[in-house]
Write a structure and sequence with these properties.
Elements lengths: L6 H11 L6 E2 L4 H7 L6 H9 L5 E2 H9 L8 H9 L8 E3 H10 L6 H10 L2 E2 L2 E3 H8 L2
Antiparallel strand pairs: 1-2, 3-5, 4-5
Pfam families: EF-hand_6 (PF13405), EF-hand_7 (PF13499)
Keywords: Repeat
GO cellular component, one term: myosin II complex
Amino acid sequence: MSDIRSEREIKEVFDLFDRKNNGRVAPEDLGTCLRCLGQNPTVKELDDVMATQNSALDYAAFKAVYMRPREPEPSFEQLVEVFRVSDPHRTGTINKNELQRMLMHIGDKFSLEEFNMLMKKADEQDGEVDYESLIRKMQR
């Protein structure tokens, strides 16, 4: 869930990803920066931002991206309903391979690295992931 961070926090994240110490953040780091600040931008949102940028973002441009109006995050209930499509027996779990297929091949596709990072947060037993628990962890 997104919340507004302090100017200091925004600047700290910007400085952390200003790898060349030139007052700019590389386009490929924008998504990670925003996630560090509690946002969860989609690939389309990042592509839309970068379509208006010719190169790396300076602090003013980065802050403007962070502060822009965004669509509200889906509710817990909405996300549970999405997972229930792949859970016809209402077990509360989804197969890890099915989850990977969904996240890496449908909609705003996850990279393998993003999927593996997500799985570190998942409660997985015998290849099954408790999706309600996963959603709760992701919304913190």
